[in-house]
């Protein structure tokens, strides 16, 4: 097993609070091997395909590893990726309906991100509208924890 052989992805949202940068969702990509996480805040679910299309070449160029498979929960936001994944030889693995345990890595990461972001905002007495920035900072911190 090596870095980026399998990535897990999941969408979180919609947030009950519109962020200050007008975002309602975030999408994460988690490397199965290292658990390194990338987070992208988005306005609409439909942005997931374009986010991955930009993310994929950056990862392969920077880390010099080919993404072999993308594991998702089968949400409709990933249907726009089908052709892109086929063209780039990336296998799309989809968990069966109502089995969040199949993408437990991403689901658990959501919980860690949201709890950390809420704590950061609460401890700094910052407004909830800054949740998107707090989530980015939470991922930065989580990626550096042992």
Automatic annotation (TrEMBL):
Domain of life, source organism: Eukaryota
Recorded GO MF terms: nucleic acid binding
A Pfam family hit: rve
InterPro entries: Integrase_cat-core (IPR001584), Retrotran_Ty1/copia-like (IPR039537), RNaseH-like_sf (IPR012337), RNaseH_sf (IPR036397)
PROSITE patterns referenced in this protein's UniProt entry, alphabetically: INTEGRASE (PS50994)
Span of domain Integrase catalytic: 1-146
GO biological process, one term: DNA integration
Protein name in UniProt: Putative ovule protein
Source organism (scientific name): Solanum chacoense
């Amino acid at each position: 097993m090596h870095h980026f052989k399998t990535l897990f992805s999941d969408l979180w949202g919609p947030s009950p609070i519109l962020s200050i940068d007008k975002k309602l969702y975030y999408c994460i990509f988690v490397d199965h091997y290292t658990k390194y996480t990338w987070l992208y805040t988005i306005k609409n679910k439909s942005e997931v395909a374009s986010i991955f299309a930009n993310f994929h070449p950056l990862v392969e160029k920077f880390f010099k590893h080919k993404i072999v498979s993308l594991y998702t929960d089968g949400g409709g936001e990933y249907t726009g990726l089908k052709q892109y994944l086929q063209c780039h030889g990336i296998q799309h693995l989809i968990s069966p309906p109502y089995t969040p345990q199949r993408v437990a890595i991403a689901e658990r990461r959501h919980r860690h991100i949201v709890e950390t972001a809420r704590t950061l905002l609460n401890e700094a007495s910052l407004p909830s509208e800054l949740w998107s920035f707090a989530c980015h900072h939470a991922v930065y911190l989580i990626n550096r924890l042992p």
